[in-house]
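User
Class, as today's exercise, I want you to study this protein, comparing sequence with structure tokens, and judge whether sequence predicts the tokens.
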Amino acid sequence: MARTARRMLYWYSNDRAVAATLGTFLGVGTTEKGGQFAPNDPAQLQNFQDWLVDVVTFAEGGFASFGYSEAWLMKGDSLQQRKTLDDWVQTYNSNECSRMRTMGAFCGEPGLRDGHGRGHELSGPGLDGGPGSVVVLDGQCDDAERRERVVPEEEEVLRCWASKGALGCPSITRMSLFTIPIPALGTAYPGGAITCTTPAPKVYLLTFVSPPDNRLTTPVLKALLSALDVLEFGGHAPGVVVTTSGIQKFYSNGLDLAHAAETDGYWPLLYAVWARFLTYPMPTVAWMNGHAFAGGLMLATSHDYRLAPSPRGFLCLNELLFGAPLKPAMAAIFRHKLPSATYRTLVLEAKRFNADEALAAGIVDGVATGLDDVLGFIAQRELAEKPKSGVYGILKGEMYKDLLQMLSGPGLEAEEARFDADQARNAERREFGRVWYEQWEKEDKAKL
């Protein structure tokens, strides 16, 4: 019974299972087809949450040993499953017919006919046969009106997916796996969150929202580290980590320089985030779905792969424009990751790259207009399978060992000391040049 309970809990706690269940309900029996449908008919929803409890508390035939607490877990009340289950219920089906199909799928009978039979066998008297119930015959709902009501919804969703893609339509792929809060920072930054969803098997989409423009403040950096820790140490299957923004215009507008200068430990924390991505034991993809400026582009560059925004959005290293020098670690990450000519253009011209220009220059590995492009990029390279051998992070650490040495410890201290000494020498040189010029000008006038 415990194994079955876990399976049922799993069925409601990740998107692949949700898609498979929906596929079974629609009679197609596959995860892929299930992921293409998201009926949004309120008339089908009435008993769904009740069923989640009924199936484990009143079904004497098969699930009598499940307690009420397990039922509430299935309803999504654990912290890591709850966030958008209610939204999902609003796009799912809960008539008597779907109960039988879904219950059959839980018990290992995903086929339409067998699923219904198995569902009825295990359902017990509490779920079936009362006033208003739907008679199930050979896997079909004996309710023509209800069947006719479902079909237009399916067609509407399909049209939406064809025109807008997954992010713009009713969808079951937005279920939250977990959420990391981003605390407020003064009045300028009201706080936000990083939400992890699973739009495809073993693809973990971290969407960060920190208004107004996803500045890399201390709370944001700490939340990023926490999200990565939850994925690595929380028992989740190895896969691919994608970061993206929930703010329409910006992936990230970089650092708040005043905050960075005034906050003890800010720079080591920033570099620790980069190092975490550089050594993370799964492939990481920065889906820049808006502008990535300065520190925002640095964050993206610490990922294994980068996807440029399209049709709008620029990538730029604009320190030249606002008079901020590149600290050694900042310069190092671009020097190690980008072609030298591109590095020169970024630093010395502050060029704003659009998606096509960024791809041609080697800043990014692809262009993404939406989630489908991201998933296609991942599938084409089979990235979700790469970390399963367990050495992915070790290989990355060795690849980037010279860069990593400049992000912490003695290596960082030596580079910072060298940088400070260079700035001091430059100040002395400028002062010497000023004195020399004054003397030269005086002597030149004396010759006239």
The chain has 21 helices and twelve strands. The first strand starts at residue 136 and ends at 137. Confidence is low (pLDDT under 50) at residues 1-155, 165-175.
